[in-house]
Amino acid sequence: MKTESCCAGQPKGLNIFEKYLTIWVLVCIVAGILLGRFAPGAAKFLDGLAIYVGEAPVVSIPIAICLFFMMYPIMVKIDFAEVIKAGKTPKPVLLTLFLNWGVKPFTMIAIANFFLGYLFLFFHQFFPSLAQPLVYISCVLSPDSAIEMLHPQC
């Protein structure tokens, strides 16, 4: 299966990581569950690497490092001239901000309440605070429109 290279304009095949990304994610989820189950000290150690304010962790250093490595490839491809041009036409930027921060969290709360409050009520009894991470995930995952504004040639 061939795909267009984002900025080079020539065909580029998927590498093994891209081709099996779903498998990699599932393997990491299972590895994390098994690590927490059979080596709880590792989870406590990673939790200890967070920056705390009072009793609450504010910034998890391991998660911050992983997020940096996840976002770095995208950040090096940004054409900053396009960022300035995008700032001169505020309508798409404001629309993206409104959808990401004004609509998505509330729709995610509704979706979480529907699935966890009605369809999977039995499951929700064992994990009552599961809706909050779903709302956080909805805030983190941004639509392709934000990236397309900065990479119009892709």
Mean pLDDT: 75
Residue share in β-strands: 5-15%
Please work out how many helical segments DSSP would assign: 9
Radius of gyration: 20 Å
Number of strands: 4
Q: Spatial order of the strands in the main sheet?
A: 1-2
What sort of overall outline do the alpha carbons produce when their principal axes are compared?
Answer: extended
Order of helices and strands: EEHHHEEHHHHHH
Secondary structure category: mainly alpha
Q: What ranges have pLDDT less than 50 throughout 5 or more consecutive residues?
A: 1-5, 143-154
Describe the biggest sheet? 2 strands, antiparallel
Distance between the termini: 18 Å
Please give the share of residues in helix: over 70%
Describe this structure in words.
With 154 residues, the protein is mainly α. The protein has a domain at 78-154. The protein has helices at 16-19, 21-38, 40-48, 61-76, 80-88, 90-119, 121-126, 131-140, 144-150, and strands at 2-4, 11-13, 50-53, 56-60. The strands form two sheets. It has a two-stranded antiparallel sheet with strand order 1-2. A two-stranded antiparallel ribbon has the order 3-4. Strand 1 and strand 2 (11-13) form a beta hairpin. Helix 6 (90-119) runs antiparallel to helix 8 (131-140). The two termini are 18 Å apart.
Give a brief description.
This protein has helices at residues 16-19, 21-38, 40-48, 61-76, 80-88, 90-119, 121-126, 131-140, 144-150; strands spanning 2-4, 11-13, 50-53, 56-60. With 154 residues, it is mostly helical.
Spell out the blueprint of helices and strands:
Layout: E1 2-4, E2 11-13, H1 16-19, H2 21-38, H3 40-48, E3 50-53, E4 56-60, H4 61-76, H5 80-88, H6 90-119, H7 121-126, H8 131-140, H9 144-150
Antiparallel strand pairs: 1-2, 3-4
Helix pairs in contact: 2-3, 6-8
